[in-house]
Amino acid sequence: MRGRFYMLHYRPNGLDTARLGVVVAKKLAKRANTRNLVKRIARELFRRNRESLPAVDMVVRLHAPVAKATRAEMNQDLLALFQRLPRQ
Known about the structure:
Elements (H helix, E strand, L loop, with lengths): L5 E7 L6 E5 L8 H18 L6 E7 L8 H13 L5
Parallel strand pairs: 2-3
Antiparallel strand pairs: 1-3
Helix pairs in contact: 1-2
EC number: 3.1.26.5
Pfam families: Ribonuclease_P
Protein name: Ribonuclease P protein component
């Protein structure tokens, strides 16, 4: 699934809970502190919503530059992707 800034790949995992991986390419976020910020935002949103997510393995990828994006926009984009996940 694709949002404004993030792309979400998922697959059922057969466990009781969801798992997360985050990938941020240097091509889209040149500075290390920006890449780390994007990862922190994704992990924190996952941590807060983990109980409501289906049991899937997810990989969140950045697919658009975030230089002009606010944290709120990035949070909303990822939360919308989480809500689009199929529920079992």
